[in-house]
Automatic annotation (TrEMBL):
Organism: Neorhizobium petrolearium
Pfam families: A_deaminase (PF00962)
Similarity comment: Belongs to the metallo-dependent hydrolases superfamily. Adenosine and AMP deaminases family. Adenine deaminase type 2 subfamily.
Reaction it catalyzes: adenine + H2O + H(+) = hypoxanthine + NH4(+)
GO molecular function terms listed in the Swiss-Prot or TrEMBL record: hydrolase activity
InterPro entries: A_deaminase_dom, ADE, Ado/ade_deaminase, Metal_Hydrolase
Name of the protein: Adenine deaminase
Binding site for substrate: 271
Domain called Adenosine deaminase: residue spans: 7-323
Active-site residue list: 192 (proton donor)
Length: 334
């Protein structure tokens, strides 16, 4: 049982957090036919490419700042109910532009949702702007430029998500230079659909402090040692990896091997309802299926907080809250 553990995640895509019932309500509100993406209360896709198409179609059901505020508040409130104290939300200004809402209103809606959830539950959250790789290098650079000039204090990081098989990291490196120069924290999806080379490219060309997934680094022991030496944090999303068939089952998932090799890892939900999961469920998987002790899970949560893209005052507050409760739990176990 992990319900009692405090939790944190640093890798969840906002549109990927839309519960199917909310997506269905949005579709009804706007008169959109969703029979190709939504069936029997579940999203319909069968592989990574189809997942991305389904994701973009679900994103298009959220059309106003209020829609995004509702989505964000709904997701964060559910997280807080599961004892989460911190979340980083991955958002794509392109999705705001594509529905004609515009990136500013899109970000404003998400920020309103964060404030409302914090008011109600105390959960802390930050926004990571992402470029979508399958929209091409120019759009990813535009996303970085947008993040770099955003005056929104909740925007603290930059990421690249989307179709990892499109181009090489070098094609997108300039976007990360822009984000780095603006003082944003850097993370990048790599080593999820593509192999270890993708993680090496990310380390060489982006120099991030974290990597989204990175699990296929396990194919190269020298790279695993490099990740450990550099202290790079892997944002691990076990349920997503199994749903997307990156690994056939949890027994073959490399989370434990990476951790044993000294790589810093934490638990995340990625796109929870798309993958039949939630952050609470990821913690249960780590405990019940992967056999991690409460103490090992607490270490992963602490890693998420250590690696969070927040100012140091906020990090200290989060760590104090976490350590106080984790200490109480450890005392109970002793
Ligand atoms: N798991 C994932 N990989 C790459 N891009 C994504 N966008 C949303 N979820 C993603
Ligand atoms: Zn992701």
């Amino acid at each position: 049982m992990t319900a009692h553990l405090l939790k944190a995640e640093i890798h969840c895509h906002i549109e990927g957090a839309a519960p199917p019932a909310l997506a269905a309500a949005q579709a009804k509100k706007y008169g959109v036919d969703t029979s190709h993406i939504l069936r029997n209360g579940a999203y319909v896709w069968s592989d990574f490419a189809e997942f991305l198409i389904c994701y973009d179609a679900v994103a298009a059901l959220f059309k106003t700042a209020d829609d995004y505020a509702l989505l964000t508040e709904t997701y964060l409130t559910e997280l807080a109910d599961a004892n989460a104290i911190y979340s980083e939300i991955i958002v794509s200004p392109d999705h705001g532009d594509r529905i004609g809402l515009g990136a500013d209103a899109y970000l404003a809606g998400i920020s309103d949702g964060i404030h409302a959830a914090r008011e109600k539950t105390g959960i802390e959250a930050r926004i990571i702007v992402t470029g979508e790789r399958h929209f091409g290098p120019d759009r990813v650079i535009a996303a970085a430029e947008y993040a770099a000039r955003a005056k929104n204090p909740l925007v603290t990081g930059f990421n690249m998500a989307g179709e990892e098989r499109m181009g090489r990291v070098a094609d997108y490196a300039r976007a990360f230079d822009i984000a780095r120069d603006a003082g944003l924290g850097l993370t990048i999806h790599a080593g999820e659909v593509c192999g270890a080379f993708s993680v090496s490219d990310a380390l060489d060309l982006v120099k991030p402090s974290r990597i989204g997934h990175g699990v296929r680094a396990i194919e190269d022991p020298v790279l695993v040692a490099r990740l450990a030496d550099l202290g790079i944090v892997l944002e691990i999303c076990p349920g997503s990896n199994i749903a997307l068939n990156v690994f056939p089952d949890f027994d073959s998932h490399p989370l434990r091997r990476l951790k044993v090799a000294g790589v810093r890892v934490c638990l995340n939900s990625d796109d929870p309802p798309f993958f039949g999961t939630s952050l609470a469920h990821e913690y249960e998987i780590a405990s019940k299926i992967m056999g991690f002790s409460d103490q090992e899970i607490d270490t992963m949560t602490r890693t998420a907080l250590d690696a969070a893209f927040v100012d140091e005052d906020t990090r200290c507050r989060l760590l104090a809250r976490f350590d106080a409760q984790a200490g109480d739990e450890a005392a109970k176990r002793a």
